[in-house]
Fold:
Amino acid sequence: MDAESLLLSLELASGSGQGLSPDRRASLLTSLMLVKRDYRFDRVLFWGRILGLVADYYIAQGLSEDQLAPRKTLYSLNCMEWSLLPPATEEMETQTSVVKGRFMGDPSHEYEHTELQKVNEGEKVFEEEVVVQIKEEKRLVSVIDQIDKAVAVIPRGALFKTPFGPINVNRTFEGLSLSEAKKLSSYFHFREPVELKNKTLLEKAELDPSLDFMDSLEHDIPKGSWSVQMERGNALVVLRSLLWPGLTFYHAPRTKNYGYIYVGTGEKNLDLPFML
Amino acid sequence: MEDCIPVNQKIEHQELGETGRPWEETVTTSQDPELGLSEALELEQRPETGLQPRSSPPRTPGSGARTPDRPVGDLVGQCSSFPPSSSQELPSTLSPLALARQDFMAPSQSDKTTSVISEAETPHVGHLEQLSDKGGSTPHQICQSEGNTFHQPQQTKYPLHELRDVSHHTSKQKELRFDIFQEDDSNNNYHLDQPESGASEVAPSMLEIAIQNAKAYLLKTSSKSGLNLYDHLSEMLTKVLDERPENAVDIIENISQDVKMEHFSKKLDTLQNENEMLATYEIAEKQKTLFLQGNLEGADQELEDEILTDTHPIQKCRFWGKILGLEMNYIVAEVEFREGEDEEEVEEEDVPEERDNGDSEAYEDDEDELPRPFYRAPQAIPKEESRTGANKYVYFVCNEPGRPWVKLPAVTPAQIVIARKIKKFFTGQLDTPIISYPPFPGNESNYLRAQIARISAGTHVSPLGFYHFGEEEGEEEEEIESGRDSFEENPDFEGIQVIDLVESLSNWVHHVQHILPQRSRIHRLGQHGYPQISFLNMRLQSLDPTFGLEHMPFPMASKKFENLYIGWGHKYSPDSYTPPVPPPVYQEYPSGPEITEMDDPTVEEEQAFRAAQEAAADSTEENEETEEEEDDEDDYD
Structure:
């Protein structure tokens, strides 16, 4: 959700039980402004909150002018002091994929993971148990990155591609119409397209190159990994990700108000096929 | 682009630079009204022409360089059609043409260069504005005033060329009929012809270039949106002329916005949803009743409860929470009926039992010889009476505030047992069948009720000392049996310091009965859970993960507290859900004397048997034959 319209956004997203206390709101309003100034971001998004056992991580993201450029991610424990997280790498993801369970809430916490490694001694091959230390900060980075890539959502038309490549905010975006707001196909993944290249020419022919440059949600795997609901009598559309429970996307049709917030434990719902 | 112009031509036109420039400016001024008129006419006659300019590439060098998708042949055409324009640039570096020339080169660099050239274009902006003035009466004073400085010197010379100008117009009239852009084209041709006729030589090219420069500027594609002003203006004018709004000048900003919006909205669907907003009004109408009946103070939720309390004999009502579903959510209210006014709940008695009876009856029809299956379904544990145990409260749910409340059925132990083994999303429709393994006895309303019971039992806590056991409950034995069912508020409760509540979990206790593996209350099996009001002396870790729960005790007033659940209604577990293992396969009968048979009797045995019989038959000789036959038959059986 946009840092500038934080209060309205929080109100809209509150239907999923994801709110912030008044003091947190106030401090976020102040500190995100400062973050925007200090890091020279074009836009600051309040990304959400990852619930830890001892403390929660509040996450914010800074966007540059090109909306799809790699984003900078910051975290804070008290909503006032923000620290920059390193960019996520694939190596981190494989490393941290072995860690299960909830976050602790202490970035310097180290998870211990024992794994078997093959050690060559002369001709014999031993299997040796090696204890690997994984820092929670790394896990945080990779989880945020995974969530961003999997379920960050943007309505169709909110961004547009300029002929020169960069992707800008569409100032004339006035919201989806009601009939479009109910369809999953009018929402896109807020990330570099992956599936788009695999489409056939016939499918591509119908796409508007300035708008349809991202992957649409409707082809997500498994089918049914989103719950679309109209609330307040069609005045608000809410998308909830079932794959990453805790991610809520909201959009009031015919207005510019849209955004997403993640409040959850930072764990992927691997049980989804059983639950549908 | 200028490479394709022969050098000698450039030199030839050099000398004309000075004289030609003012001269052609007069042409601009004189042409302006004419152009405006004719174009306005064009627009009127063919309203859709506004769209054409986009498809037919405008012939300007600047735009040619800018838009990459223009056909190459077009570029060549431009080169050949503009020898004068490029020739002018060499000698007069100070002239507006040269500046405008920069314009040609600049566009790919950045937007900032436009400010440099702006002076050169101003007259033409004015020109265009006049054009729009004719069509939609757009104010153009600003442009005019800027252009004035430029126009001044030419005004004096104007009479000299007047005659010629008139001739221009007359000759041009027919050509103007085509299109805005075709008309431009004809201008080009006309000016190109000028040197040949010898009357005014190349001079008009000056004007031409200036026009082209202005147009090039207008056609410059925005680096942000990929649109250009020229197309935008023409689209706007088309729209204005199409729709003929009153006081168009007042809403020109909105028209501009509408035109831009059209780029981003899909083409209209043939099937339009007419009643798009209907649902909004409908729910608003329903919710209106919520506010009318209650007194208008307090939050939304309380009012909902109030409506519920109006229609049912309710003693106590509490907002339990919200369970998210796939299509709709559930708002859950916890209700205690007034004494003796419970609603009838007879009709929903145990269905599975009835089925069992039917099965056993069906088997009785069979002949007695075949053995009947002696597997009996395990004795169903009867559900707890209303007002006790897990059925202490009645739960009402509704999908949205304002919609009718639906009473959930009472929970049975079997449902709780199965609900522990499955993990399904709620859909929001109470009659959805739950398709799961193991099979769930009931539909979604039963599953929802079971989850509510589990969540309540697991997470409803209160500050230590807030409740105490009812005093009238004297007998010790019954305390265990009924699980100390009743507790009441402690009137002497002083409140606990907030800091104590936050820092230590030992100040929180459960006040809802624990659900044993089998059910809430101990049922004839002597299973013993922890007492109902017990210290919640678990670690924080173990409290927090249960049910992804929002424990919302109100710490501000330490005499008040509240439990609230908002979530998907699933229990948290660090490991992934594992479906329960299939039940063990029943062992077959062990091979024993009843199963195995002897070998067939051999001939020797039969002969020995017959010999023995014959020996026996010697004593009774009368019935010999018949006996033998019978014996044979017996052996073969």
Q: What stands out?
A: Chain B touches chain A through 51 residues (CB under 8 Å). The longest helix of chain B spans residues 141-172. The CA atoms of residues 123 and 147 of chain B lie 5 Å apart.
